[in-house]
Write a structure and sequence with these properties.
Length: 716
């Protein structure tokens, strides 16, 4: 028998254990081992009941995503789980699924085919398939509504959010919640109780008591279709999931699963599915760094000190406190500190008001943040994160001080988004323990963390930073110390192109409408207004953009800056803002800006014309892609897929398009290259195609193939 499935026994109860690290995915090896193991148990007269349990940190967390990805790129037919599920449900002896960790996707589908489910209180159960652009394809769309009812099943499948064990018990998804941690003993006892009751062991597929009537269900399906349209308009799997649940409520089980199979294949073949599976795997690939292995010692960060209690410092303090880490939050004056803490308190209070946390949890988190003016206690910190104003001089002064007051193995991090990490590290005696931790605002919410590796940063420090990112619930992407790192470096050509477009005749409103319709979370002008035109102005100076006078430079942003139109915070920028409209955050087109743009452009001799929506998309998004190719060439990122992770998690790039580099592959690099070459001829030198893009286009290759080879780019 294979090691991935073993059979033990506790008297007359057989214990079938799946052991397929890291998350017991139901891959081919498990399926092929489970079927004969169950067959043997069925034939063993000494066995009267079975407990199905998993080793390691979790119950089966789903089908094997690698297998699904292969299906998505071929015929859309995923692994066939049906024979195994039929074997389980028709098993002649009761089978109890014993659940800990997460029972997700195919894992929950397997558990629902068992006669009973028991779980520890900390377990979570769900069908997250929609987040991968697919629908459950192992009979889950047919069994879940039979267990929890149509309404709850629709909600679970459309959000993809797992539910906690108490909720699962209340809704009928599990039959028993285990007090304490001894799952196996409790599950075995539960199995014996069922034997003692001499009960008929229920098959989920025979249940119809929760399926409702057509009259009851009609409004539920209508509402669910509306939710799918509203919340996931670009992901076909959402509406297909509703169709599948409707099949459960209207067709016999066998017909229902046939329908599920068709709908599942349709979802797997869809373009958003390829993109979302790509991103899932890309996020995990991003944590693999050539000189950082499982053996690389990583420091466990227990105590963090933060310098600077502004928006970023406060947000980082909250991110740490939320993850159970104690924080010393320092600022230069008690007034600045009080202002920072007030904003932290307001933020938590808003979460309590929205029902996202209790007063007790808020108090606990606030108690983890200790505000202070001096550096008391910094000697005990494992990590200090500096989050002050973007000034090299100030940062160097702070780092020299930190070097003196912290213990020698303390990691010193800077939250700079633009400055050279090596120049900061140079003032310390430990450049190998200096790293950039570029959080995105609001730091307690945004998932991206750019981990900026300086020339001397050691593998241990990179490993520690990746560990911290995971602990904070963030996705760490390791990038090189090149100006703008990855995200901001790519954003500037994209931003400038949108500014050139308005000079040539588009409007900020048109550009933002086109970009958001295309899928960006926000338009570029709204982003600029939110981040602050003053901030963008400073970064332009810092990075020395347009220092070459022969370069075409955007003409309007500097004027808006000079007028004090910094964006949302001053009530006007590219747009106008009014406290009465969307709380001062909704952009309102401003005729004054349109007039300024027209006057400026005409004055500079720029021909004004109607700009098509297609041109806006191509110029904005291709500018991003071309710079992305340069980032790869320079070794700024280790892989094209890392860039996708950065953009999808930090810059509002639509996940269902897979990130800019994945999107480029799908459009076709030759086509992208040829358009860029045309722009180069028509619009000037800024559009020179990146050599890497030109080479891949010529060779008929893709960024994805480049990643698979893993050899063409420099290491991070
Ligand atoms: C499905 O089931 C379809 C069905 O309807 C059937 C269709 C026929 N497969 O996230 P982590 C790996 S769709 C393969 O860092 P955590 C992951 O790559 C699936 N591998 O851990 C990583 O590998 P490495 C529905 C998987 O503790 C390692 O596990 N299920 C899978 O932060 C650790 O991952 C889901 O969507 C997988 N399914 O979180 C659940 N899952 O160490 C997807 C993980 O080499 N998974 N790996 O980098 C998750 O949400 C999280 O991984 C989980 C653990 C919550 C389980």
């Amino acid at each position: 028998m294979s090691d991935v499935v073993t059979v033990g026994s506790d008297g007359d109860v057989a214990v079938v254990r799946i052991d397929n690290p890291p998350v017991n995915a139901l891959d081919r090896g498990v399926r092929e081992a489970l079927a004969p193991a169950l067959a043997r148990v069925a034939a063993d007269d000494a066995v009267r009941a079975v407990v199905l349990v998993c080793a390691g940190r979790t119950f089966v967390a789903g089908a094997d995503i690698g297998e699904l990805e292969r299906a998505a790129w071929s015929d859309g037919i995923g692994p066939d789980m049906h024979p195994l599920l039929a074997q389980v449900e028709d098993f002649p002896k009761p089978i109890v699924a014993a659940i800990h960790g997460t029972a997700l996707g195919g894992g929950l589908e397997l558990a629902m085919a068992c006669h009973y489910r028991v779980a520890v209180e900390s377990a979570r159960l769900g069908l997250p398939e929609v987040t991968l652009g697919i629908i459950p394809g192992a009979e889950g769309t047919q069994r879940l509504p039979r267990l929890v009812g149509v309404e709850k099943a629709l909600d679970m499948g459309l959000t993809g959010r797992p539910i906690a064990a108490p909720d699962a018990l209340a809704s009928g998804l599990i039959d028993h919640m285990v007090a304490g941690d001894d799952l196996l003993t409790a599950a075995t006892a539960f199995a014996r109780e069922q034997l003692a009751r001499g009960a008929h062991h229920p098959r989920t597929r025979d249940r119809a008591d929760k399926l409702g009537t057509p009259e009851q269900n009609a409004p539920l399906f209508a509402a669910a279709r509306e939710t799918a349209r509203r919340t996931k308009p670009h992901i076909p799997a959402a509406a297909l999931f509703v169709d599948a649940v409707e099949a459960a409520a209207t067709l016999p089980f066998e017909s229902g699963i046939r329908r599920e199979r068709e709908l599942s294949a349709e979802s797997v073949r869809s373009e958003p599915c390829k993109a979302l599976l790509h991103l899932f795997l890309a996020e995990r690939a991003a944590t693999k760094i050539p000189d950082v292995t499982r053996e690389t010692p990583a420091m466990t960060v227990n105590r963090v000190a933060i310098v600077g209690a502004g928006t970023m410092g406060g947000g980082i303090a909250m991110a740490c406190a939320n993850a159970g880490i104690s924080v010393l939050l320092r600022d230069a004056t008690s007034a600045a500190l009080e202002k920072g803490m007030e904003s932290v308190r307001r933020n938590y209070a808003a979460s309590v008001k929205r029902g996202r946390m209790t007063d007790a949890v808020m108090a606990e988190r606030l108690a983890r943040i200790q505000p202070q003016v001096g550096t008391d206690g910094f000697g005990d910190a494992d990590l200090v994160i500096e989050a002050v104003f973007e000034s090299m001089e100030l940062k160097r002064t702070i780092f020299a001080e930190l070097d003196r007051v912290t213990k020698p193995d303390c990691v010193l991090a800077t939250n700079t988004s633009t400055l050279d990490i090596d120049a900061i590290a140079a003032v310390t005696s430990r450049p190998e323990r200096v790293v950039g931790l570029h959080f995105f605002s609001p730091a307690n919410v945004m998932r991206l963390l750019e981990i900026v590796r300086g020339a001397a940063t050691s593998p241990e420090v990179v490993a520690s930073a990746l560990g911290l990112a995971k602990r904070l619930g963030k996705i760490g992407v390791v990038v090189r110390n090149l100006p703008g790192f990855v995200g901001n470096r790519m954003m500037f050509p994209y931003m400038y192109e949108t500014q050139f477009l308005v000079e040539e005749g588009a409007t900020p409103e048109q550009v933002d409408r086109v970009l958001t319709r295309w899928g960006m979370a926000m338009g570029m002008f709204a982003v600029d207004d939110m981040a602050g035109l003053d901030v963008a102005w400073r970064v332009r100076q810092e990075l020395g953009h347009f220092s070459d006078p022969s370069q075409r430079r955007p003409l309007v942003a500097d004027q808006l800056y000079a007028m004090g139109r910094y964006g949302q915070k001053t009530g006007s920028g590219w747009f106008r803002y009014s406290p009465d409209v969307g709380g001062g955050r909704t952009p309102i087109p401003d005729p004054e800006v349109l007039d300024l743009i027209a006057r400026t452009a005409t004055g500079a001799g720029i021909a004004r014309r109607d700009i098509s929506d297609d041109e806006i998309v191509e110029r904005a998004i291709y500018a991003l892609i071309n710079e992305g190719a340069r980032v790869l060439e320079d070794g700024g990122a280790l892989r094209a897929s890392d860039i996708d992770v950065v953009y999808a998690n930090g810059y509002g790039f639509p996940g269902w398009r897979g990130g800019p580099m994945f999107y480029a592959d799908r459009v076709g690099l030759r086509r992208i290259h040829d358009r860029i070459a045309t722009f180069h001829r028509e619009l000037g030198p800024r559009w020179e195609p990146a050599p890497l893009l030109a080479r891949l286009a010529r060779e008929g290759r893709t960024f994805r193939e480049l990643d698979a080879l893993g050899s063409d780019t420099a290491g991070v």
